[in-house]
Amino acid sequence: MSDVRRVTRRLGLRTAVAAAVTVPLLGTVSASAGRGGGGGGGDHPLDVMTFNLRFASTAEPHSWATRRPVMRELLRRAAPDVIGTQEGLYPQVRDIASDLGGRYDWIGTGRAGGSRDEFVAVFYDTERLAPAEYDHFWLSDTPEVIASNTWGGSHVRMVTWVRFRDLRAGGREFYVLNTHLDSGSQYARVRAAGLIGQRIAGLDRALPVVVTGDFNSAAHRNPVYDTMLDAGLVDTWDTAAERGAPYATFHGYRPLVPDGDRIDWILTSPGVRAVRTAVDT
Fold first, then answer.
1. Is the peptide bond preceding residue 80 cis, with omega within 30 degrees of 0?
2. Per-residue model confidence as pLDDT tens digits over 4-32
3. What pLDDT is attached to residue 19?
4. Is 20-280 a CATH 3.40.50.2300 domain?
5. In Å, how far from its chain's centre is CA 147?
6. Domain residues of the chain, as ranges?
7. I want to staple 40 with a disulfide (CB 3.0 to 4.6 A). Which of 11, 29, 45, 234 is the partner?
């Protein structure tokens, strides 16, 4: 968040990139990372986070049982309106829902279908947002086929998308797409980015779009990033009026790396005005 703080115990959390977005009536969005005052005026700033949870392993010293209390602290303190998560297994996603409390709900399915395998779940504050429509598609040549993988990726990959109504802003609507691109194949990542761009082009162009995800690609230094921006998106990290200290968003349970690769992004349609953004450590 904009007041970047370290949790008291370094227990191997992936860092989270967060953004606060306002969704005006005619499709501009103001995006920033973290909660807090300022920014957006009467535009009702909306806080958005992307967070690779790291799947629920039992191996110590970084088991889910060890990591969960720290993650609970981070999420409750940040209290985003929308969270795009990656890697969460079904019991883990349910734990996150429980830790966030009854105000939150979530949308998602396992990448192998149903409750199997990892989720790219979208959590949301039900006091602020109501889903009007949602669906999933798989990052392959057959995107409607559950668990399809045709580009040689190391794992099945997918997108969960939701069209939200903002209950605090007259019911104005916007889209959220959440994804996790392949960790092993650059070809699969580039093809996936192209498909996401095509799908965004098919949405209601009058509505703002927010894309959260772990792209497994360094911002500004990978064709995946170029493909996403060529699809008409902008990077809130670059457009934000205020920005926290930059860190690599994957640290492998080692000390944080200042100015390292930012592989977790929050992208938006070009009408977005980014107020604040930061990596929450």
1. no
2. 222 223 334 467 877 655 443 333 333 33
3. 63
4. no
5. 21
6. 20-280
7. 45
